[in-house]
Amino acid sequence: MKAKAVFKSVIVIILVIVILVVSFAIINKKNTSNRELNDFQPRVEKVLRKSNLPGKVKVTRVFISTGGDYEKNAEFTYQEKVNNKWVKIKSGLPFDGRTKKYNYDFNPINKNDFSHSETMANFYQSSWRNSKGKTIINKAEDTFSKLKVKNLTFATVRGQMGQNGDDTVKILNSESTSGSVEKEFKNAVKLNRKSNSSDVSSFNGYYHLDPEYYMKTGYNSVRIDYIYHARNSDDFNSDKYRKKEKLINKEIEIGLRKLDYSKVATGTYQIVYTNQNDDGTESNTEFELVIKNGEIAYLSVT
């Protein structure tokens, strides 16, 4: 009996030690995480302030990115007050993992930057948060969610900028080119940035751009994502899969031609479906759809 009591006591002591060790590890990890967030908070703010972005910043996550130990990504939320309402976006900035300095080589950003880097793309997205942008997205979601194809599931809709080539732009306006509409867009951003109104110059001049207008010129586009549940494990490079893909594409094309586009904005719609196999492999297929005055002006697999 005495031996059994001693054994139980030892077990209890071991369990207590394990609980204490695990608790310490969790607390230590949380404290380390908080320290890192606090460490990168002023670093992110400094980069954004230099980029003429004076809004509220909150670093939410810091992690080692695909660049390895020498690159850390700081994710953050950014808010500005526009027309007495707070508008929020999410983005991220890369930093050198050793020096913790902003990694300019990976992601250039400054107040005159028009590059399509990941960070700046999220600030471009702010114009899709204004009333016209929301209307375009909502109407696109309402229309494209009605596409009926077996095993195809509607996923998301989001606005894009600067995604169209000359051929697409000319379908919308035969006298324009991708270069000319981009130049017009940049000039509009510059004018907004010079405005004395904080509302107009918000989000570094992007928020008050008119998404509907830039859809018509061919500079903006809307991306619609679907998931296709293949339920097989065919090699995506095999002849068998390519034949199957042609049939899927034909089904989707027929479905797209049946939709009512009377309520969607004139412009380009990038239709993307991700083909997911049961074994975890996947591939993407894209369609380019141009709508003009409620009718299909162009539709093709890209």
Structure write-up:
The chain has seven helices and eight strands. It has 302 residues and is α+β, with helices and mostly antiparallel strands. Among the domains are: 1-33; 131-301, no CATH class. A hairpin with a 5-residue loop joins strand 6 and strand 7. The N and C termini lie far apart (79 Å). The chain crosses the membrane at residues 6-27. Keywords: Membrane, Transmembrane, Transmembrane helix.
Key terms for this structure?
302 residues; transmembrane; alpha+beta; transmembrane helix; 27% strand; membrane; three-stranded antiparallel β-sheet
Extract low-pLDDT stretches.
25-32
Question: What is the CA-atom radius of gyration, in angstroms?
Answer: 25 Å
Most strands sheet: 5 strands, mixed
Helix content: 40-55%
Computed structural class: alpha+beta
E-strand count: 8
Q: Give the amount of beta strand, in percent.
A: 25-35%
Order of helices and strands: HEEEHHEHHHEHEEE
Principal-axis shape equals flat
Overall average pLDDT: 83
User: In angstroms, what separates the terminal alpha carbons?
Assistant: 79 Å
Number of helices: 7
Strand arrangement within the widest β-sheet reads: 4-5-6-7-8
Condensed summary:
Helices cover about 40% and strands about 25% of the residues.
What is the topological layout?
Blueprint: H1 2-50, E1 56-64, E2 71-82, E3 85-96, H2 118-124, H3 131-144, E4 152-161, H4 166-172, H5 178-194, H6 211-217, E5 220-229, H7 239-258, E6 267-276, E7 282-292, E8 295-301
Parallel strand pairs: 5-6
Antiparallel strand pairs: 1-2, 2-3, 4-5, 6-7, 7-8
Keywords: Membrane, Transmembrane, Transmembrane helix
Transmembrane segments: 6-27
